[in-house]
């Protein structure tokens, strides 16, 4: 399982994730920037990858129910809170990486992370 960074996700996260020991790839390696969200998730699923994004559309479990994908991590933060977000993201990955992220929506903000799974 790897982490696939959405087009809108700051590229610094690819480097950071690799430093932490995770496999991280850029979505742009595989698909055009104007690809639809369903196509992006389908690609992530085919690569057995968790999506890392700042796109809040992916946080809508009515449109993207957790059981329909390999996992999505949505980052929610202001630029001034980036260091705190990095700490929370690292903790979330440490706690959940691999099986804990499958079919999960993970919302990460600077203070905490929240998990949504299929009912």
Secondary structure blueprint with pairings:
Blueprint: E1 2-5, H1 12-19, E2 24-26, H2 37-46, E3 49-53, E4 72-75, H3 82-96, E5 104-108, E6 113-117
Parallel strand pairs: 1-2, 1-3, 3-4, 4-5
Antiparallel strand pairs: 5-6
**C-alpha-based Rg, rounded:** 13 Å
**Physical arrangement of strands within the biggest beta sheet:** 2-1-3-4-5-6
Beta content: 15-25%
For the largest beta-sheet, the strand count, sense and barrel status come to: 6 strands, mixed
How many separate domains make up the residues?
1
Strand segment tally:
6
In whole angstroms, the N-to-C terminal distance is: 23 Å
Bulk shape: globular
Explain this structure to me?
With 119 residues, the chain is α/β, with parallel strands linked by helices. It is 28% helix and 22% strand. It is built from 3 helices and 6 strands. It has helices spanning 12-19, 37-46, 82-96, and strands at residues 2-5, 24-26, 49-53, 72-75, 104-108, 113-117. The chain has a 6-stranded mixed beta sheet with strand order 2-1-3-4-5-6, with helices on both faces. The longest helix is centred in the last third of the chain and has 15 residues, at 82-96. The chain is globular, with a radius of gyration of 13 Å. The two termini are 23 Å apart. 28% of the residues are buried.
């Amino acid at each position: 399982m790897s982490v696939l960074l959405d087009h809108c996700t700051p590229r610094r996260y690819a480097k950071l994730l690799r430093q932490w020991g995770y496999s991280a790839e850029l979505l742009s390696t595989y698909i055009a920037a104007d690809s639809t969200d369903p196509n992006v998730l389908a690609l992530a699923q085919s690569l057995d990858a968790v999506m890392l994004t700042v796109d809040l559309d992916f946080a809508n479990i009515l449109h993207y129910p957790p059981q329909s994908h390999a996992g999505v991590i949505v980052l929610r933060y202001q630029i001034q809170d980036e260091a705190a977000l990095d700490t929370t993201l690292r903790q979330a990955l440490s706690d959940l990486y691999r099986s804990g992220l499958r079919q999960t929506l993970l919302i990460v903000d600077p203070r905490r992370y929240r998990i949504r799974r299929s009912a």
